[in-house]
Structure prediction request, 855 residues.
Amino acid sequence: MARIPDERPLNPKPEVIDAIGRLLPAEAVLTTPAELAPYECDGLTAFAQRPMVVVLPETVEQVQAVLRLCSAQGVPVVARGAGTGLSGGALPLADGVLLSLAKFNRILAIDADNRTARVQPGVRNLAISEAAASCGLYYAPDPSSQIACSIGGNVAENSGGVHCLKYGLTVHNILKLKLVSIDGELFEVGADALDAPGLDLLALMTGSEGMLAIIVEVTVKLLPKAERAQALLAAFDKVEQAGAAVAQIIASGITPAGLEMMDNPAIRAAEAFVHAGYPVDAAAILICEVDGFNAEVSYEVMRVRELLLAAGASDVRTARDDSERLIFWKGRKAAFPAVGRISPDYYCMDGTIPRRELPTVLNRIAELSAQYGLRVANVFHAGDGNLHPLILYDANVPGELDKAEDLGGEILELCVKVGGTVTGEHGVGVEKLNQMCVQFNSAELAQMHAVKAAFDPHGLLNPGKAVPTLHRCAEFGAMHVHHGQLKFPDLPRF
Amino acid sequence: MIDIQDQDAEIALVEQVVAAREARVPLVIRGGGSKDFYGNPVGADRQLDCSAHRGILDYEPTELAITMRAGTPLAGVEALLAEHGQQFPFEPPHFGAAATIGGMVAAGLSGPRRPYAASVRDAVLGVRLLNGQGQVLSFGGRVMKNVAGYDLSRLMAGSLGVLGVLLAVSLKVAPQPVGRMTLVQEQSPETALGLMRRWARRSLPITATAWLDGRLYVRICGSEAGLAEAHAIVQGLPLADADDFWHDLREQRLSFFTGDGPLWRLSVPPATAAAELAGEQLVEWGGALRWLRSDRPAEDIRAWAKAAGGHATLFRAISAERLEGGVFAPLEPVVMRLHRHLKQAFDPAGLFNPGRMYPWL
Prediction:
């Protein structure tokens, strides 16, 4: 796999840097290698590319001016929030402007009566809940990077998190966006009300990975903090039993606030790291959280406990208090760094499958893991079928990164095969362009390109991301057939 | 129990769209005709009847999702879901016995539960669509956590058929509550709004609210213990035959909705003060939805809604005169342009429901 998967012919226009310099103060325009280096990749560190220039506007007018200029000069633009994305959505272009929204970091208004917050895109996800706490409100979507990730990035990726089973994805938790088009025009989608006239452009913009317009303001819904939350930790001797327990909980009519599963490798790694008291011999554990109205929580905890035992759990623990509840979660939340401790590198995958396919998929992942000679630990948002296989590898061993990526690709294709999708919450970015060729046919991809053209006919916003060209798919299809026999050359594609 | 017949009429629908394209004849997309009253008049005579394309394609209760052909009767699907203790979280109005799944999604109308659970659009997981080039395309899927590509399936919710023909839809379903109760208390509109505002700041198990005729109605759901605790907080007297009340509200069969005068739908921030607009009002969605029977000029009603941060739709009107610009609130120029471009992207020949959403689309 090429390190820089952009197919576009490069067309650098360095003169635009001077023009930008006339629009923004000097400190908002970064040009030296040392200044550009921190922006060369996002959370997908295997892909790196220094941009031509980084701009850090502070006002909407500055964003508009930069986009008008780039549009007139034909210069591509990649937007970036906190740079925590895991699919390379903010990977810069060598001939492009990296537009950082980091200075858009103010919370503009909190409306406790209407339960909304109006914030700038660079505001950290958790900062919204922190600001709303004094009103007894919070912002529900909680991706695990929430102490660092930006709300603008969350909207661009339609981020989820552990609690999205009950509280929804980003698209379910926002009301309105202010955006700037590639032509520099300011417009709004959504409304301060629960719906808006015309087509649902709010839904279309959410998850559009910086390809349709630049977000400059987000109005989010705030929810009342749950009166009470309670958690259970259950151990299972067989993954199938854990999967059946999940199905039974869902079928019972309870919607847990969170329902997470970890397999044995993930349990062992987490326990070695945080000592949360996880049962290290269990084939799988389930962590189930219920929250809400006090009397309802008591009922649901009792019911969930019964169901877990009926499904064959070898042990079920109910948190005695809030601090024990947080300990139950500690290992799950530390799963990724825990895995990072036992391996020089790891590659976090993200796919969704129908829940009933979990035992099949986990068995097949175990087979592939043996085949490739790479360990895999699995963490699973059991409630909604979103799977995060963590592939352990050592980048210093020649060829191991490629093997890890190939194994990841096969896992994603397996997700599609069983009726799921290649990305549950991390987005496509550059990472999953090839797998998009598996999930969608050429007419579907062409329709997506047509939608993109409706907003950005010259393809200047984040080109080369999210939706592969038909040419790329044709190439990938040919290489895929010869997988194992054909090396992927590091040559520019054309 | 309504029999959901299994009929695959996809090929016929594709052929009709291809023929319409070749003949340059626009189409009216129709399921059961239950939403005929909603929106603007369509500039087309030839009908594309989707009601023959029906059947359940996939339903596993533990996956909390159901996939159906678009012509499947809504009543039949709801009966099937109820057999398994499930329901659509958005409590959709039917507005007619022949209502179909496709019409429900295309109209995008949600019922009393909407603000407490989800909207139609929220519940869309995936669609199979027939576009204006006669191509059959699938977007989204059958799972909620899915961010592969643009969210074209949710874009179809509320699109009134102007982008394409829905052939099949996957929707999220929710469990039916263990128990439910509706409480009624006499309140002025201002007090009612204040109560709904305060309750919304707590995690109470409310699943519907309505104020009309000096009375505030609140539906709460949960276990026996939960209902008792919630009752003590919300107060009011239990309403007998409450399901009928919410059903009649949803289907607009209450006396408030009868008669020939215009019915306006005002979608506003929930804490918006009671409207000082002459005419009868009915409040739903914790204050976020206001129905208004009024002969006031459209500009006045639209101006009030806009000032409040929302918008106004002329939901029903029996009138020879059509509102200039259509029944839906006008769009800003940039957004209008994006609408035209998106229409071009899906339906370049302008085959589907021309004029239904806006006269210019």
Observations:
- Residues 10-175 of chain B form a domain with the Uridine Diphospho-n-acetylenolpyruvylglucosamine Reductase; domain 3 fold (CATH 3.30.465.10).
- Chain B has a mean pLDDT of 95.
- The two ends of chain B are 40 Å apart (CA to CA).
- Chain B touches chain A through 85 residues (CB under 8 Å).
